[in-house]
Specification:
The protein has 98 residues and is mainly alpha-helical. Helix content is 60%, strand content 4%.
């Protein structure tokens, strides 16, 4: 181990069974595996989503099918809390002005 005292190094946890592991619960592992199963070959980062956020929000407010028109934005918003919060604030602001 090149850096055993590095602060980001995960501590190994000994489970009741005596097995060593990372401390990841089976529910946490299942959540990670589900996330891997629904990944796209191409994904948008936050900057790309921010550029499309206003257009996407207007489409949602009109009832357009965003899942087929902008699926990568929809997918990113499902995963990214920061972008989702910005989207929800923009959607609320748009609904107030309509």
């Amino acid at each position: 181990m090149p850096f055993p005292d590095h602060p980001r190094r995960k501590a190994k946890v000994r489970h009741e069974s005596g097995q060593r592991g990372t401390g990841l619960s089976s529910a946490g592992a299942a959540r990670i595996l589900r996330g891997l199963a629904i990944t796209f070959e191409e994904e948008y980062d936050c900057a790309q989503v921010e550029r499309l956020m206003a257009e996407y929000t207007e489409m949602v407010s009109r009832g357009d099918d965003t899942a087929s028109l902008l699926p990568l934005v929809k997918y990113h918003l499902q995963l990214c809390l920061d972008c989702r919060e910005e989207y929800e604030a923009l959607l609320r602001a748009l609904e107030i002005t309509i």
